[in-house]
Automatic annotation (TrEMBL):
Protein name: Uncharacterized protein
Length: 202
């Protein structure tokens, strides 16, 4: 996904990653970090202190990392996580929640169903939805009785990051406007949409 954000071949000028308290960009560094420059940001080179630790997959709140270790980083782990935190889901619903195409979600769910550990059923007249045994999966993943497990709540990261990105975009736009009325109007219009995205993420 980060590849789509690369600006190394773009005509869009890079901008400073950090700003002062007054909102002004810091002076351009002498030695730019290549990593950040490739994505359109300027900052000093830095050296990793190598003090970070691997994410603990024992905690239920980190179940996404546990599933990625099992299935790899991709649609399968995200599909399983969605089904573990919902009663069931159809491909379009799952695709919208995890941020991939409907075809991609459908293919992943079909492959998972072939394992015999993810099941299908018809909802309504024609809608196919997928589900799994919550008790069986949670016991396998954490070795605990289903009644003892406090399941994590699904967080819609797609909507959350979309809202945060729109806040950033709006603040940059109103900064360029000279009219207080236009700034107020743009801010009010954007906040309505951002508020809806925040509500979706909960």
């Amino acid at each position: 996904m980060l590849r789509t954000l690369r600006k190394i071949d773009s005509d869009v000028p890079s901008e400073m990653l950090f700003q002062t308290k007054q909102g002004k960009p810091y002076p351009q560094p002498k030695n730019n970090s290549i990593i950040f420059r490739d994505y359109g940001f300027l900052r000093d080179e830095f050296s990793l202190r190598k003090m970070s630790k691997s994410v603990s997959v024992v905690a239920k709140s980190n179940i996404r990392f546990l599933l990625r270790a099992l299935f790899g980083i991709g649609s399968r782990s995200e599909c399983i996580l969605y089904l573990l935190t919902h009663e069931a889901g159809h491909p379009a619903e799952v695709a919208n929640a995890i941020g991939i195409s409907v075809r991609g979600a459908q293919d992943a769910l079909i492959e998972l169903a072939e394992s015999g550990l993810v099941f299908t059923r018809i909802k309504g007249k024609r809608m196919m939805e997928y589900w799994l045994s919550q008790e069986r999966w949670w016991k396998f993943l954490f070795g605990m009785n289903f009644e003892e497990i406090k399941k994590p709540i699904w967080l819609d990261w797609v909507s959350l990051f979309s809202a945060l990105m729109n806040i950033w975009k709006t603040l940059n736009e109103i900064e360029k406007s000279k009219s207080d009325y236009m700034r107020s109007s743009k801010l009010r219009e954007s906040m309505e949409m951002i508020n809806l995205e925040f509500k979706k993420s909960q």
